[in-house]
Amino acid sequence: MKKEISSSVKIALLQTRSGECTQSNLQNTLAHAEKAAQGGAQIICTTELFKSQYFCQSEDHDNFALAENIPGPSTEAFAAIAKQYEVVIIASLFEKRASGLYHNTAAILDADGSLMGIYRKMHIPDDPLFYEKFYFAPGDTGFKVWETRYGKIGVLICWDQWYPEAARLAALQGAEILFYPTAIGWHPSEKAKYGENQYSSWELIQRSHAIANGCYVAAINRVGHETPVGGDGIEFWGQSFVAGTSGQLLAKASIDSEEILYADLDLENVDVTRTHWPFFRDRRIDAYSEISRRFID
């Protein structure tokens, strides 16, 4: 018997930690996904690159062995859960597209288990312990929206969350919920001085996307202190959250524990918010041509 479709949708964010064994990480995330489905979730999202510890802390060619094809074994495993429980699943994976061509990719599975499509991370950072440009080619899928069984969703990945252009382009295609699989944390040596501002900026920018676009925002971060190459490593700050269509916090996870964060969303609020705060109506699209320039000299 199929689940009834309504304006209400229950989402679940899988805030997990990643250990050294990729198979254990996969099984742990699959177990969390199944538990979320049994708990009534209709759309489920993993953290960014959940199958391994955050390998981008170093530039090491051996790490390319962690990549996989899409579709492949991981998407097949999630598809089985999606089909059995009639849930939508967003799974963040390290994609091997071809020899020498790799992406940071999210696979979107609809409630019948079908692979609706993929999103390849568009903005690729290169910062201390976040050496992603070594591994990932910039995405070429564009900013996409999927009309799943339970609503229209946009999927962006981590560094994308700092760019209002990405959120806007997804919202202009009708996205009702923006999902951001994430792996972000503190450098322990900097935490005392910068940690509070770094975290608050991360939360604030994403809540602002909800306000500016009149949609829901769901940010999913991992937890744990990972030191795969020694040194201080990265202390992932967890605190996955869901923001409402006016930017209000609807749900927030802990800073250091694995958990499933649920939120009940009424998609009718998207229309109501966009009608009463008509940012789309008042956009001056005739005056924005220079936004495509790198810098205005």
Number of domains: 1
CATH topology: Nitrilase/N-carbamoyl-D-aminoacid amidohydrolase
CATH superfamily: Carbon-nitrogen hydrolase
Distance between the termini: 61 Å
Task: Indicate the CATH architecture.
Answer: 4-Layer Sandwich
Would you count the extended β strands for me? Answer: 17
Show unreliable segments: none
Write down the overall mean pLDDT.
97
List the helices and strands and how they pair.
Layout (H helix, E strand, L loop, with lengths): L7 E8 L6 H17 L4 E3 L27 H13 L2 E11 L2 E9 L5 E6 L5 E2 L2 E2 L13 E4 L2 E5 L8 H8 L5 E6 L2 E2 L1 H26 L2 E6 L1 E4 L7 E4 L3 E3 L5 E4 L6 E8 L1 H9 L2 H4 L15
Parallel strand pairs: 1-2, 2-3, 9-10, 10-12
Antiparallel strand pairs: 1-17, 3-4, 4-5, 6-7, 8-9, 11-14, 12-15, 13-14, 15-16
Essential attributes:
single chain, 297 residues, alpha+beta, Nitrilase/N-carbamoyl-D-aminoacid amidohydrolase, six-stranded mixed β-sheet, 6 helices
Task: Give a written overview of the molecule.
The chain is of the alpha+beta class and 297 residues long. It has one domain: Nitrilase/N-carbamoyl-D-aminoacid amidohydrolase, CATH 3.60.110.10. It has helices spanning 22-38, 73-85, 164-171, 188-213, 268-276, 279-282; strands at 8-15, 43-45, 88-98, 101-109, 115-120, 126-127, 130-131, 145-148, 151-155, 177-182, 185-186, 216-221, 223-226, 234-237, 241-243, 249-252, 259-266. Strands 5-4-3-2-1-17 form a 6-stranded mixed sheet. β8 (145-148) and β9 (151-155) form a beta hairpin. α3 packs parallel to α4. The chain is globular. The termini are far apart. The model has no long low-confidence stretch (mean pLDDT 97).
